[in-house]
Amino acid sequence: MSFKICVSGAAGGDCVNPQTMAKAEEVGAAIARSGAILVTGATTGIPHAATAGAKKIGGISIGFSPASSRIDHINRYKLPTNYLDLTVYTGFGY
């Protein structure tokens, strides 16, 4: 059984800049390299960069979305779907 490690962070704003995005990608890669599964809020910004880093080295990422379906996730919330191996659509909203 693999450990699951969550990366949470800003989806936007001043702290989402090239430096923090690069660090988030490094963190995602390190999580995957350790054999753990990355868990995020299936959103943009820092969590998305972490999933990109994990995917670059073949890691597994799971995202929990506020949407009730994939269509809701994309059209209503405007959230990314790439890099995630599994998205759980909670329907809870923000």
Give the secondary structure arrangement, pairings included.
Elements: E1 4-6, H1 18-33, E2 37-40, H2 46-56, E3 61-65, H3 70-76, E4 86-89
Parallel strand pairs: 1-2, 2-3, 3-4
Q: What can you tell me about this protein's structure?
A:
The structure is a single chain. The chain is globular, with a radius of gyration of 13 Å. Helices cover 36% and strands 17% of the residues. It is an alpha/beta fold and 94 residues long. Helix 1 crosses helix 2 (46-56).
DSSP strand count: 4
**SS strand fraction:** 15-25%
- End-to-end span in angstroms? 30 Å
Determine the fraction of residues in helical runs and give it as a percent range: 25-40%
Mean pLDDT: 95
Unreliable stretches (pLDDT < 50, length at least 5) are none
Going by helix content, strand content and strand pairing, the class is: alpha/beta
- Radius of gyration, CA atoms, in whole angstroms: 13 Å
Quickly count the helices: 3
General form: globular
Elements, N to C (H/E):
EHEHEHE
Strand order of the largest sheet: 1-2-3-4
Largest sheet composition: 4 strands, parallel
